[in-house]
Automatic annotation (TrEMBL):
Annotated PANTHER family: DNA GLYCOSYLASE, DNA-3-METHYLADENINE GLYCOSYLASE
This protein's record includes keyword Cell wall biogenesis/degradation: no
Keyword DNA repair: yes
The species this protein was found in: Streptomyces flavofungini
Name of the featured protein: DNA-3-methyladenine glycosylase 2 family protein
Length: 334
């Protein structure tokens, strides 16, 4: 395992010539910090970092044709943009902004350095087949709570399309432009700081389709953001307990958050509308499974139940739909 961390310009030279610049990227010369980290096992960037993406038009997340993943976020040191690409088995990263050093320091954790997939033992043929087909999946750890908590709150009790729309509108309007040479055609934004979240007017939540219950939960979380960010350094159980002290944050939301912020391989999302039925159908042909039944089926994977659930979702084996999808309720039109 090797790593280096040095500042240099954004121009990157790799085997075969200069790395391609995404179409639409401003051609200005911007100072960047860089780091190369070689993972101990094969790494699939899209599978590993995919959970950070909130829909195809997420203004905090981009992929480019050259295989790079771009991420804009707010670190304890300030806003930053990270670009990661795999070259000859090594993860080459560039970062811009006040939080660039913080992001590069955490690059191994982000790419699953603390994950232990070698300890995982498939107990079902479907899981074993998916693990073989989806090699390079590692569970990420961002070390950041609010960036996963707020979109998880937006996803409470609504369709994913509605939640993704709300996230997109709020980030574009109240976030700040991401530092670095991001695409002019699809500009990236860093999520607002807690103070800005707390000052969003009620009518703007309404226009984004966010009801008062979810908006109020986000406002309560923003008021205690420093205390919630401390949860990133806790074990996952303690972290979830800390998050659930905030009214409106329950087991579903806390699990969805710590899976990303803490790299929690055993934290299962309970209270989900579809997940129990998917896991029940995939492992036992039981499409009517509830949370209790889901946890029974995942019990052989104790310690890695979240990993098992992810592999089941990646298998594509889902029960045939018999009931209509959750109805969209656009409160912005009311």
């Amino acid at each position: 395992m090797s790593s280096r961390f040095v500042p240099r310009p954004t121009r990157t030279t790799v085997r075969g010539g200069e790395a391609p610049i995404p179409q639409g990227t401003p051609r200005r010369h911007t100072a960047a910090a860089t780091r190369t980290w070689t993972p101990p096992t094969p790494l699939n960037l899209s599978l590993t970092l995919g959970p950070l993406r909130r829909g195809p038009a997420d203004p905090t997340f981009r992929t480019t044709p050259d295989g790079s993943v771009w991420r804009a976020t707010r670190t304890p040191q300030g806003p930053a943009t990270l670009r990661v690409a795999l070259r000859a088995g090594a993860a080459e990263a560039e970062a811009w902004g006040p939080g660039a050093g913080w992001l590069l320091d955490g690059l191994p954790s982000l790419l699953g350095a603390a994950d232990t997939p070698e300890d995982f033992e498939p107990r079902h043929r479907l899981v074993a087949q998916t693990e073989r087909r989806r090699q390079g999946l590692r569970l990420l750890r961002t070390g950041l709570v609010m960036e996963s908590l707020i979109p998880s709150i937006l996803e409470q009790k609504v369709t994913t399309d509605e939640a993704y729309r709300a996230w997109r509108l709020l980030i574009r309007k109240y976030g700040e432009p991401a530092p670095g040479p991001t695409s002019a055609r699809a500009p990236m934004h860093v999520m607002p700081d807690p103070r800005t979240w707390s000052r969003i007017p009620s009518w703007e939540w309404h226009k984004a389709g966010v009801d008062n219950k979810r908006a109020s939960t986000i406002l309560r979380a923003a008021r205690v953001a420093p205390r919630l960010e401390e949860a990133a350094a806790m074990d996952p159980v303690a972290a979830r307990t800390r998050l659930e002290l905030v009214p409106g944050i329950g087991p579903w939301t806390s699990a969805e958050t710590v899976q990303r912020s803490n790299g929690a391989p055993d934290e299962v999302t309970v209270g989900d509308l579809h997940l129990p039925g998917i896991i029940g159908y995939a492992l036992a042909g039981d499409r009517t499974a509830d949370d209790t039944r889901m946890l029974e089926l995942l019990a052989p994977y104790q310690g890695h139940r979240h990993r098992a659930a992810r592999l089941i979702l990646l298998s594509g084996r889902t029960p045939p739909r018999r009931t209509p999808k959750m109805r969209k309720a656009n409160i912005a039109a009311l």
